[in-house]
Amino acid sequence: MLLERSTWPAVEAYFANSDLVVLGFGSTENHGRHNPLGTDWMAPQRIMDLMGERRPEVLYGPTLRLGSADHFIDYPGTLSLGDDLLHQVAARICGQLYHYGARHFCFINGHGGNTRALTMTGYELNDRGCQVALLNWWKLAGELNPAWGGGHGGAQETSADLWIDPESVDMTALGPMSLVDDGGSNIKTQGFDVVEFEGVHPSLIRRARRYATNGWIGKDDPRQASAEWGEQMLTTFADWAVKFVDAFAQSPLPPQVDR
Ligand SMILES: [Zn+2]
Fold first, then answer.
1. Neighbouring-strand partners of residue 109
2. Closest CA to 48 of 106, 104, 108
3. How far away, in angstroms, is 12 Cα from ligand 1 center?
4. Gap from CA of 112 to ligand 1 centroid (Å)
């Protein structure tokens, strides 16, 4: 049951019998020179479509296409709400769903940068007597099959894009990962923020384009990507996610807490 394609009486009737809602959270941001900026909302949206085929009786809300991606704002086209505004938007959406009767919230998240704001929202809902699940699909997919694990804009996400919207991917633009050591002598860039110095890994806080000139980062080289990988990964994940949601919907609600 897709919220946007339902009438309000249908939603009212739904919440008379269920307090479960599944919501998508994405981002519009750099994913390397070859992937579309919408990569991080396209996957959650497809996952929710697949879940809807498997459990049409569950209510699926919209996927938010903007998230928190301040580290990427030097790559043109990246549009970031930032942590504070994403938190406000998520809290507002969830607060309205709470008013209609939602108590079990399942977030299908496509972007690591959203985690902080969604966790803040989750604590607040938890204090109001709700259960909140955060499914960071790319991490969980890597647990379902370690061969599917990936970084940012690498083979994992490129495979998802090649299955969901192949025309949005430009494999001819794919270049090397291109990490720049911009932290001074003997400080080596390793990935997002993380550098290596004498075998130890502190962080440098900086906009990503200064050290990642291509924009994709990870051990999973996008040249290995395929639509078949994307399809198998996302359908397997959706198979797991609907079973998780079945169990999650039965989880006891916590007491309300005033803070
Ligand atoms: Zn991504």
1. 25, 136
2. 108
3. 34
4. 8
What pTM was estimated for this model as a whole? 0.96
CA of 94 to the centre of ligand 1 (A): 23
pLDDT of residue 170: 98
Please state, in angstroms and rounded to a whole number, the distance separating the CA atoms of residues 28 and 69. 8
pLDDT digits (tens, 9 = 90+) for 192-242: 888 999 999 999 999 999 999 999 999 999 999 999 999 999 999 999 999
Beta strands in the chain (DSSP E): 20-25, 59-64, 104-109, 131-136, 188-189, 195-196
- For residue 70, the CA-to-ligand 1 centroid distance in Å is 14
- The CATH code belonging to domain 3-154+233-248 is 3.40.50.10310
**Residue 241 three-state SS:** helix
Question: 157 C-alpha vs ligand 1 centroid, how far in Å?
Answer: 6
Instruction: Give the type of residue at 96.
Output: Q
State the distance from the centre of ligand 1 to the C-alpha of 158, rounded, in angstroms: 9
